[in-house]
C-alpha cells in the first residue's frame, strides 16, 4: 500500500513501557501514587489497577508552556499481542478502560496490533463498546486470503464482520491513521 507523504507539525515520540502517569492527560495519577505510598489504607482501598503502562506509546510534546507541567500528550496507546488468548482478551479492554476513565483531556487513539490467525479470537477483541478504536493485523492480506479460501463458515462470518465494520485494518495503515487522528 502506498501512502502520500504528509507533513506533521509535531515531533512524535514513540516509546515502550511508559506509564500513563507520564503523559499530560494522566499526570494527576502521579499525585495519587504519592498519597498511596504514604498510606497502606489507600493502597488497600483503591488498589493499583488504574496504573496502565501501554506496550507502545506515541506522544507529542506539549506546546503550551506550563500547561500540565509540560508533560507530552499521549496521542496513541498500542497494545501488542502476537496472538490473542481467549482467556486474556479482556486484559486489553481493562487497560484501555483505565485510560478512558482516568484521562483529563483528549482521549488517545487506543489500538491493538496482532498477528492472531483465528478470526474468532480477533472478533472477541474487535467487538465492543468503545474500549478500543481498531485492531491492526500484521498479515491482514494473507489472513484475508486464507479465511476466504479455506476458512469455515463461522471464521468467514467473524472475519467479514470485523472487516465490514472497519474494526480490523491492515497494519500498513497504522501510520496514516496516527497522522490523521
From TrEMBL:
A Pfam family recorded for this sequence: NgoMIV_restric
CDD domains attached to this UniProt entry: NgoMIV-like
SUPFAM superfamilies assigned: Restriction endonuclease-like
Name this polypeptide is given: Restriction endonuclease
InterPro entries the UniProt entry points to: NgoMIV, NgoMIV_sf, Restrct_endonuc-II-like
GO biological process annotation, one example: DNA restriction-modification system
Superkingdom classification of source: Bacteria
Species per Swiss-Prot/TrEMBL record: Streptomyces griseoruber
GO molecular function, one term: type II site-specific deoxyribonuclease activity
